């Protein structure tokens, strides 16, 4: 799909201009100003602009940008070649104090930690070396900064534009980045294109409800839709986010399904393997009906039993680690002998196989190598034991309830 008659239409998201500024700008040839009747925030404003734009390719730019020479063709070229590419220029820095233009390094890409805040990060030494051979090669980036990018208009629409329930600012770049990658596209920084951007120390406008809350709500919507079980690491990193209502996400989940988007695990393995998944998998309680696995105050070498769930952690708090351990503080549930009907006791956690369990989809907590599962049938006499796995037995049905979700 090629742009008609070289006619590229831009949408500049000028969401902090006054009406008077708009009238001034409208005097410029080819500039069309669309003003919202009420404050909508950048997401709904951009979607509105995109709907009105008539060209095949959309370019979003923040209002505080200055385009460098020949910045556009390298971006357009990549999108014309493959409409599933979403591309950004290298973002140079315009000083907020004196508007000085400062070239940025092209050895950067966009990333994030589990707090889901965008950050620039250096390419690996190998990638930097490869770039020295050919400095024009596009840089694949896990995340885009959000303010400046080019996308095929039909692809933008097919991919679900934006989450229209996100307010004001923040989190939308995270959401579109996950969505593009997980739903079959890619994100690139094109080093041959440079655009300056004023990086501000703070927002020049106010947020209804407080900036922290708006950012957390938007981020939470992105995490809830796109991150599957990995959202728990976000909540572990930003515990306050758990208390922020995020509204209804049904239509976004339906979109994810309709587009056959890949799980977040795929994104982590293929797009962002540098993001380390924390060792702790999940913390919470292990339930069987109204009862929870409980240390009953026993210590090392002691058995564990069941007790009415009390939702206050303590003796009922367990961590399922990445290595498969079921851990209470520094003690792990341990199979004493590799036989059926074996006692299960708490021992200091080590690397051994007899501390490795897998929570199966059907609710079985199975030893990682043997066909034995945690079972409560002897709980009043011998505590929880390990028996031959049988998913039909109620005594082997467990539910892990994370207190992070
Ligand atoms: Mn900006």
Layout: helices, strands, pairs:
Blueprint: E1 9-13, H1 19-25, H2 41-52, E2 57-62, E3 65-67, H3 73-81, E4 85-94, E5 101-102, E6 108-112, E7 118-122, H4 125-133, E8 139-140, E9 148-152, H5 153-158, H6 172-182, E10 186-198, H7 211-226, H8 231-237, H9 250-258, H10 264-270, E11 280-288, E12 291-294, E13 305-308, E14 318-321, E15 326-328, E16 331-335, E17 342-348, E18 357-359, E19 365-367, E20 372-375, H11 379-382, E21 385-388, E22 399-402
Parallel strand pairs: 1-2, 4-10
Antiparallel strand pairs: 2-9, 3-10, 4-5, 6-7, 8-10, 11-12, 11-14, 11-22, 12-13, 14-15, 15-16, 16-17, 17-21, 18-19, 20-21
The chain binds manganese (II) ion.
Organism: Polypedilum vanderplanki
Domain Ricin B lectin: 280-401
Pathway: Protein modification; protein glycosylation
As residue ranges, the low-confidence spans are 1-8
Silhouette: elongated
Strand content: 25-35%
CATH architecture term of the largest domain? Alpha-Beta Complex
Number of strands: 22
Q: End-to-end distance, in Å? A: 44 Å
Any idea what the CATH superfamily of the largest domain is called? Spore Coat Polysaccharide Biosynthesis Protein SpsA, Chain A
Number of H/I helices: 11
Structural class: alpha+beta
- The gyration radius over C-alpha positions equals 26 Å
Mean of all residue-level pLDDT scores = 89
Enzyme class: transferase
Domain Ricin B lectin: 280-401
Pathway: Protein modification; protein glycosylation
InterPro entries: GalNAc-T, Glyco_trans_2-like, Nucleotide-diphossugar_trans, Ricin_B-like_lectins, Ricin_B_lectin
């Amino acid at each position: 799909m090629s742009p008609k008659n070289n006619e590229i239409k831009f949408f500049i998201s000028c969401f902090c201009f006054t009406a008077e500024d708009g009238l001034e700008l409208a005097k410029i040839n080819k500039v069309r100003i669309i003003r919202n009747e009420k404050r909508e925030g950048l997401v709904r404003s951009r979607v509105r602009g995109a709907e009105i734009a008539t060209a095949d390719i959309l370019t979003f730019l923040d209002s505080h940008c200055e385009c460098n020479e020949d910045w556009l063709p390298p971006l357009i070229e990549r999108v014309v070649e493959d409409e599933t590419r979403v591309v950004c220029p290298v973002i140079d820095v315009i000083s907020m104090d004196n508007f000085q233009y400062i070239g940025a390094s092209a050895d950067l890409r966009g990333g994030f930690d589990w707090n889901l805040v965008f950050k620039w990060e250096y390419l690996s030494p190998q990638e930097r070396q490869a770039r020295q051979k050919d400095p024009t090669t596009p840089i694949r980036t896990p995340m885009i900064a959000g303010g400046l990018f080019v996308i095929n208009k039909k692809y933008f629409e097919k991919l679900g534009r934006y989450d229209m329930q996100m307010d004001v600012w923040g989190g939308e770049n995270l959401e579109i980045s996950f969505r593009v990658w997980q739903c079959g596209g890619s994100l690139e920084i094109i080093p041959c294109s440079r655009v300056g951007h004023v990086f501000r120390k703070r927002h020049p406008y106010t947020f209804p409800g407080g900036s922290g809350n708006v950012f957390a709500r938007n981020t939470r919507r992105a995490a809830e839709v796109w991150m599957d079980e990995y959202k728990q690491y976000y909540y572990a990193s930003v515990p306050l986010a758990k208390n922020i209502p995020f509204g209804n996400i049904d239509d976004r989940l339906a979109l994810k399904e309709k587009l056959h988007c890949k799980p977040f695990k795929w994104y982590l393995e293929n797009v962002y393997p540098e993001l380390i998944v924390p060792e702790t998998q999940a913390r919470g309680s292990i339930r069987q009906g109204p009862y929870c696995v409980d240390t009953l105050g026993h210590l090392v070498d002691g058995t564990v039993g069941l007790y009415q769930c009390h939702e206050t952690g303590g003796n009922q708090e367990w961590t399922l680690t990445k290595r498969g351990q079921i851990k209470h503080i520094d003690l792990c549930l341990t199979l004493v002998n590799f036989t059926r009907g074996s006692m299960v006791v708490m021992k200091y956690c080590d690397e051994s196989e007899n501390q490795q369990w897998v929570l199966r989809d059907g609710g079985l907590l199975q030893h990682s190598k043997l066909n034995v599962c945690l079972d409560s049938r002897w709980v009043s006499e011998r505590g929880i034991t390990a028996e031959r796995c049988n998913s039909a037995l109620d005594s082997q049905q467990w539910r892990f309830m994370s207190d992070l979700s």
